[in-house]
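Hey,
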Amino acid sequence: MNIRPLHDRVIVQALDAEQKTAGGIIIPDTAQEKPSEGKVIAVGPGARDTEGKRHQLLVKKGDRILFGKWSGTEVKVDGKDLLIVSEGDILGILDRKAVVQAKGKAAAVAGTSSDHSHVPDMDCC
């Protein structure tokens, strides 16, 4: 890749949205929602504070992340559609066990044994 992000910018390759509903109905391209999940391709060195000290980013290359649907700037590099976002636009880093579903449905982490799922570090019960 011929692009290197600056400051607190992150280059993301958006992952395709689900093409089928849970009931098996195929969603046409024109009705699919804009992706909000992606894979980090590259990260900048981090932003500097008022004293000039650099702060490392929390995300790293290879992480799967969630970002706002209208976040960042879309670019095309080497024929690939990419997104450049600020670290502040990243909503979270997905754990390898994470299962994220469309709006209106639960966002849960797989592998729990109770009758409902928990998101790590969040209280619900």
